[in-house]
């Protein structure tokens, strides 16, 4: 199973991504977690990106591309799948994700979108702020992350829809109910994909 997760901050990408990965026995590659680990370890990449994370901005595309290329190559080395959570987040990243994945014969079968309401995600993130103390969970930074999501991330959903791999699920119910909706829908997509492989790249470009 090869899944991309595209959803606003606070939609439950992390929770659902981990459950989906466990269910299908594939690695959960969360770009935010990978970046925060670099920051915590004080690596050169971590030192470069920490200000973007703190401000709720997007890390430059080229850095993300290098990070994702390596993570996907490692994850699929044994021929397995992945849940890529938090990438792509803009049109350039969507194209890069496609190119990276096709170069290793592992393009996504599903782009999973969790639909949410802005007020609810702000409420969830402010609640989480009291528990996890993430540096970007303050109200102004949350608003900035949400605005960026609407501006540059949401438009890529249409591309996945045209490719025929978009799966959009209501992310508002509690986490267990979302999981109960997502897993069977992914199973159904996987069965469909086995029966009929995805469109050829030429058609994608034409779209
Ligand atoms: P959220 O979705 O709640 O914002 P994440 O953990 O997915 O949380 O991401 C946290 C931060 O990591 C983002 O605000 C951004 O700074 C950085 N980041 C994660 N993924 C990407 C990406 N694909 N492109 C650019 N920056 C990213």
TrEMBL record:
Annotated metabolic or biological route of this protein: Purine metabolism; AMP biosynthesis via salvage pathway; AMP from ADP: step 1/1
Keywords in alphabetical order: ATP-binding, Cytoplasm, Kinase, Nucleotide biosynthesis, Nucleotide-binding, Transferase
Pfam families: ADK (PF00406)
Entry EC number(s): 2.7.4.3
Reaction(s) the record says it catalyses: AMP + ATP = 2 ADP
Intracellular or extracellular location(s): Cytoplasm
UniProt binding sites for AMP: 31, 36, 57-59, 86-89, 93, 134, 145
Region (NMP): 30-59
Subunit structure: Monomer.
HAMAP family linked to this entry: Adenylate_kinase_Adk
Entry domain remark: Consists of three domains, a large central CORE domain and two small peripheral domains, NMPbind and LID, which undergo movements during catalysis. The LID domain closes over the site of phosphoryl transfer upon ATP binding. Assembling and dissambling the active center during each catalytic cycle provides an effective means to prevent ATP hydrolysis.
Recorded family membership: Belongs to the adenylate kinase family.
Protein name as annotated: Adenylate kinase
Organism: Dactylosporangium cerinum
Gene from which this protein is expressed: adk
